[in-house]
Design brief:
There is one protein chain. The chain is an alpha/beta fold and 458 residues long. The protein folds into 2 domains: 2-213 and 402-457, Metallo-beta-lactamase, Chain A (4-Layer Sandwich); 221-397, 3-Layer(aba) Sandwich (Rossmann fold), CATH 3.40.50. It has 13 helices and 22 strands. Strand 8 (152-158) and strand 9 (166-172) form a beta hairpin. Helix 12 (406-416) packs across helix 13 (428-441). 45% of the residues are buried. The structure holds zinc ion (2 copies). Residues 61, 63, 161, 182 line the site of one zinc ion.
């Protein structure tokens, strides 16, 4: 088997991996878009694959860094079916259509000529080639239950990251290859932890997002939720409002549920929770599938049971944040012109308010800049305008990650003990930590950081 990392660098980036099994065909795992780089340079190296050659495409989950360039890959490979879970099917449909809208907006604002990179029509036509497959069953590349004589088949496994997320196991002539996508081994508030194979894997392709993250001693997710609750209550007591910038998929639903339980148990008072339009649409999918997927609180229909209001651009005009309310608004990194960016600019100057971060913030993003600004100093939240603003409100960060801690990933690799382990989806320093640890714990294992664009024989 030959593997080519189509991501343009060793980073989180636009995830995509091309696996070539020679006469038995070749497949691609994920087709993401870089979270910051705009236009075609933010897409994977799709042109390295011969046109119309793939047997199949697999999608692990609906985050942009895994599926944002899927319509472009499908245009290049119009014969290939795309396999995913039911949850990913619903979420990806909403999110790709949203991306088209964002690209039209950015074309007008920033004058990016190649935008949109795909259209609503192209997405709708492409959906005909999407196949949804159940977890833990054995499938053929024709989307039917697998037969023993087929040379290349697959299975999906629970990845525990967001609704619909799965790891992909490819079975090639008896050899098993596992690509984890993004994984989380521990339970979140809604999502239950990953259930991955524990033996018999020859080649493992695993994410390393948190490889350079050291958790403080005694850290637990529950403890972190209580620390957040304390921060919220302190803000309310001071007569302020709380804003939590959150990705529309995953973080919004996990936080919405956590806040709901904190309100019900009177740990925080019952103010209104505002969510954005896209967050609402994706929450609707979580609600629709609540009894059909493996998750905690399967009977909780969020949009019916949780008191919330929708925040949109029109409502924002002249809007003043109300003390005692929580704004759970995307984007998580406060990208310029998004609701969370605009709303933050209304909250920042007042020392009674708080902005609490719950996810990854790129240091170059507005969220990253705000996090790095000491209280009382000024920050520029929109670089297209030459203005900065005072940061007087409370800023804090809480670790509510949907990715496995590095120790849990390392334990899994050591336990599974594959012949070959490829480290992906992480900065070089993150992958390097795993490489060093594995060199000590499993010196016989072949550990590879697949370089961008170069085929490696496995
Ligand atoms: Zn993800
Ligand atoms: Zn990812």
């Amino acid at each position: 088997m030959k593997l080519t990392n189509l991501t343009r660098a060793n980073e989180i980036g636009a995830n995509s991996y091309w696996l070539d099994f020679g006469a038995d065909g070749s497949v691609v795992l994920d087709s993401g878009m870089h979270p910051r780089i705009e236009g075609y340079s933010g897409t994977p190296l799709i042109d390295l694959i011969p046109k119309e050659s793939l047997k199949a495409i697999f999608l692990t989950h609906a985050h942009h860094d895994h599926m944002g360039s899927m319509p472009i890959l499908m245009r290049h490979q119009p014969q290939a079916p795309v396999f995913m879970t039911e949850g990913t099917h619903f979420l990806t449909t909403s999110l790709l259509h949203n991306s088209v809208e964002v690209m039209f907006k950015q074309k007008a604002e920033k004058g990016i000529p190649e935008f949109p990179l795909y259209t609503h029509k192209e997405i709708d036509r492409g959906i005909d080639r999407w196949w949804t497959c159940a977890i833990d069953r054995h499938w053929s590349l024709e989307g039917r239950p697998a037969q023993s004589e087929e040379p290349l088949t697959f299975k999906f496994h629970e990845a525990g990251h967001v609704l619909g997320s799965c790891a992909v196991e490819l079975i090639h002539r008896g050899k098993r290859i596992l690509y984890t996508g993004d994984i989380n081994f521990k339970d979140q508030t809604l999502m239950k932890g990953a259930q991955l194979p524990e033996e018999g894997i020859d080649t493992l392709i695993i994410e390393t997002t948190r490889g350079n993250h050291v958790s403080p001693p005694g850290f637990t997710r529950e403890g972190e939720i209580l620390r957040l609750a304390q921060g919220i209550e302190e803000t309310f007591k001071n007569g302020g409002a709380v804003m939590i910038p959150a990705f529309a998929l995953g973080k919004t639903q996990e936080l919405l549920t956590s806040l709901h339980w904190l309100q019900r148990q009177n740990v925080i008072r019952k103010g209104t929770i505002y969510i954005g339009g896209l967050g609402r649409m994706l929450t609707l999918t979580y609600d629709k599938l609540c009894g059909r997927v493996r998750r905690s609180h399967p009977k909780l229909v969020m949009l019916e049971e949780i008191k919330h209001e929708i925040m949109d651009g029109r409502r924002l005009q002249g809007f003043r944040p109300r003390p005692g309310d929580i704004y759970l608004i995307s984007s998580g990194m406060m990208t310029e012109k998004t609701l969370s960016n605009t709303l933050a600019q209304r909250l920042m100057a007042d020392k009674r308010n708080s902005i609490f971060f719950v996810g990854y913030c790129d240091p170059d993003s507005p969220a990253g800049r705000l996090l790095a600004t000491p209280k009382g100093e000024r920050v520029c939240m929109d670089q297209s305008k030459d203005e900065d603003q005072p940061v007087n409100c409370r800023i804090d960060k809480f670790d509510m990650t949907a990715h496995a801690q590095r120790e849990d990933i390392l334990d899994y690799i050591v336990r599974l003990n594959p012949r070959v382990c490829l480290l992906v989806h992480g900065d070089p320093s993150a992958s390097a930590w795993f490489q060093q640890e594995l060199a000590v714990k499993r010196p016989e294992m072949q550990v590879i950081l697949p370089p961008s664009g170069k085929a490696i024989e496995i």
